[in-house]
Prior knowledge:
Layout lengths: L1 E11 L6 E6 L5 E4 L10 H11 L4 E11 L1
Amino acid sequence: MKNTKFLVKINRVGTRGPQYLERMGKGSVITTTPDRKRALLMGKFTAEDAIKAIQNARCTPELIAVEVLL
C-alpha cells in the first residue's frame, strides 16, 4: 500500500543547491539538510503550516509530494 507524504524544499538566495526541512523545533528553530532522504516526511497540513512559518523574502519554500510504501 502506498501513502502520500510531503516534504518541504527550501531555495535560499545565495546558496548552491536546494535544502530540505529536517526538523522544526519550538519557536523558530529550523534545521535543514541537503540530503533528501534525511528530510522530514509529514502530512499535507503540517507541511503547509511549516511553509507559512518559514516563508520570507530570502527563502522560497516549496511543497513536494512523495509516495511512501507502508
